[in-house]
Amino acid sequence: MPKMPSNAQTLILRIFEAWKEENLPAVDGGTAFEVFSSELALRSFGLGIEEIQAGIAGGGQDGAIDSVYVFFDDALLDEDSDVVSKASRPSDFGQDRNLELWVVQAKRTPSFAEDVAEKLENTMRRLLDLSLSIDSLSVLYNPTLLTRFGIFRSAWEKLITRRPRISVNVVYATPGDSSNITPQFEAKLNAFKQVIISSVPDARAVSVELLGDKELLARYNERPPRTLLR
User: Fold this and answer.
1) What is the pLDDT of residues 9-39, one digit of tens each?
2) Alpha helices per DSSP H over 29-114
3) 134: which residues sit within 8 A by CB, 6+ positions away?
4) Fewest beta carbons within 10 Å, which of 35, 44, 158, 183?
C-alpha cells in the first residue's frame, strides 16, 4: 500500500498550487515549483519573482541544477554587475566582503532521490574547476547554467586578492520527508559536500541542505524582508 502523504506534505502542495495560481498561472507546474522552492530557499534575501526567474537554469542539460544565484554583500549579481565587469579592478572593491553562491534543485516528487547527489557532485566538480573554461563545458550544460556559474567564477577570480568571505550553499527541495533518508544517501551528501570544499578551498562556509515538506512549510510561514514583485 502506498504511503499516505503527511499533513505537512499536503499543506505545502496546496500552498504551492495557490501560490502558482496567484503568481505564475501560465507557467508549467515543474518550473513554477522551481521558482517557488528557490524563493523559499532564498527567503532571507527578499527577491522578487522576476529576480528568482532570472536564476532558473533547469531544463535540458542542467546537470540536476534548477537555479543558480550569486550575491555580493547581499546584492544579487548579473552579467552587468560591476564586480564581474572587465573594466573594474580588484582594488575597486573592499576586503573581506561576502560572496555567496546558491544552487537549488527542486522537484515535486514525494521523496528525495539518491542519484541527485551524484549528479550534483559531478556537475559542481566540473563547473567549479577553474582549469576548465566555461565555454569548454557548453557541450554538457545549457547556456543559462553556464552563464550563472560564469558570474560566480568571474567574481571569485576578480576578488581573490581582496580575501572575500566565500560561501557555497546547495539546497535540494522536495515535498518529501527530509528525516527519512537512508544512510547511503546521507553518505553521498557528505561526499558531495567534500567535493565542494575541495573545489572552493578558500570558502569560509559550505552547506548542503535538504528542504522537505516541514522545512518548506516553515520557510513559507516566515515573512520575507519585503513584498515580492509580481
Assistant:
1) 999 999 999 999 999 999 999 999 999 999 9
2) 29-41, 49-54
3) 146, 149, 150, 153
4) 183
Q: Which of 169, 171, 152, 160 is nearest to 78 (CA)?
A: 152
Going by C-alpha positions, the residue among 170, 35, 52, 160 that lies closest to residue 99 is 160
Q: What is the DSSP string of 126-195?
A: HHT-TTS-TGGGTTTS-HHHHHHHHHHHHHHHHHGGG--EEEEEEEEE-SS-TT---HHHHHHHHHHHHH
CA distances from 93 to 97, 159, 160 (A): 8, 8, 11
Residue type, 28: D
Residue 38: name the closest of 21, 28, 50, 26 by CA: 50
Q: Residue 212's closest CA among 122, 77, 109, 90? A: 109
121 pLDDT more than 80: yes
The residue among 2, 42, 87 whose CA lies nearest residue 216 is 42
Closest CA to 62 of 174, 142, 156: 142
Alpha carbon distance 107, 68 (integer Å): 15
Q: Are 56 and 137 in contact (CB under 8 A)?
A: no
Q: Which grid coordinates belong to 53?
A: 526567474
Residue whose C-alpha cell reads 546558491 in the numeric block: 102
